[in-house]
Amino acid sequence: xxxDFPPSPRxxxxxxxxxxxxxxxxxxxxxxxxxxxxxxxxSFKVPKxxxxxxxxxxxxxxxxxxxxxYAARGARVCIVGRRESMLREVEAxxxxxxxxxxxxxxSPSDIFSVAADFASxxxxxxVRKAVEDAWGGLDTHVIAAGVSALQPLMAVAGAEVxxxxxxxxxxxxxxxxxxxxxxxxxxxxxxxxxxxxxxxxPMLSNTSKSPSVVLVNSLASVIPAPTRTLYASTKASSLVxxxxxxxxxxxxRFTFLMPSTVEGNFRASAVDSGPVREKDPNAHxxxxxxVARRCIQAVDNEEKAVFVPEAxxxxxxxxxxxxxxxxxxxxxxxxxxx
Length: 338
What we know:
Layout: H1 9-36, E1 52-56, H2 61-72, E2 76-81, H3 84-100, E3 111-115, H4 121-135, E4 140-143, H5 153-156, H6 172-207, E5 212-216, H7 229-248, E6 253-259, H8 281-284, H9 288-300, E7 305-308, H10 312-321, H11 323-333
Parallel strand pairs: 1-2, 1-4, 2-3, 4-5, 5-6, 6-7
């Protein structure tokens, strides 16, 4: 659009609007191009019934569903979580799913579990040794572990006692408490994924014909939400960590799964003991089995950034175009309206 000089206010606003629209359309066209391009076929390099899959955070939630679905298609699966009793349940489910699908469990190493904390270097080295002894290598690494945090930051610090009530000045004890809660969130959502990457990236790179890493992250890592300050910021840090790793290790396919609210009791892991403010996630959240299925499909297709539901990809783009609208919707969802 050509402008007279000096431009009139009307001409300037029209030019600015057309430029904004053009900028907004470019990501949409790129997204469409990505969606329509021919998908690679990883299964040609790693047959589904020969795939060696390590799932961290497999004792519950999305990780549990991912492990069971991989087992049902004949993959060899190592299930890792901190709760040994629950791991035994998942191991039994995976064995049953594998057998029911026509893939008999011919060896203990087809499906096995290791109780471990993914934020512990010693534990991750122990898991790596178990995988190496059982399979001699690894094809797919799924990181589905993490912790939640549910309160506004000032509420964690004891400064906010209610919406519309003047904030208090936190004491030294309050600030230290906030730092301790933040460190717990960092340990579960950033340090754990970091340690897992350092422990297993070399094995993946050296032993698989088509190595793949899946970080099960959150939509909150790319679209800010009230009451999710610590959760979102720590999940965002692990997302950027793995995005940078994907550039440093181009031979490994990285997938970043970003679902919106998922059903289940993930909020029980909250490091700040905050209340659930949104509508009952067990009634309104995404189904774990559907999210797990989309996760595995993304690995097979070697997709990178995966939003669940897919429409959230456009919500992410809209945040940069009309942030006030997205912020209003997020406030409404999490019951943070004044």
